[in-house]
Amino acid sequence: MNIIEGGLDDPRVVALLAEHIEAARAHTSCDSAHVLDVGQLKSSDIRFWTAWEGDQVVGTGALKRLDAFHGEIKSMHTHRSHRRKGVAATILNHILAAGKQMGLTRISLETGSWPYFDAARELYKQHGFEECPPFGAYRTDPNSVFMTITFGNR
What we know:
Blueprint: E1 2-5, H1 11-26, H2 38-41, E2 46-53, E3 56-65, E4 70-78, H3 87-101, E5 106-112, H4 118-126, E6 130-131, E7 144-150
Parallel strand pairs: 4-5
Antiparallel strand pairs: 1-2, 2-3, 3-4, 5-7, 6-7
């Protein structure tokens, strides 16, 4: 599996992100889906990666800088044919390493509270994330679970 930065103009990546958006919106309440579209992912404060097996995109993930020391994981998604094969863990490890290289000491995320998101929450816990209060512009929402990991010294 190769992890490559970028790819937001590749139709295969756009199609996988469309699946991600559709699934996120289908498995949570409409006001609680905080998924970003391709245009939003092109923001200068976001780094975006794709995971590839040959010429097939099998996963995505992004890191949004919130401030000098805090980032947020966005758009973590694995193609349905590659789930439970280590794709998400590989992307997550890549994002965490990139965050450390950027000088971040805290990385947070928002994910859903519904059963569809159980595997994602378990993955984050296995990598050291813990539940936390809402951060940034987020507010308390029964449909959302907020998680964070802290590393390094500030």
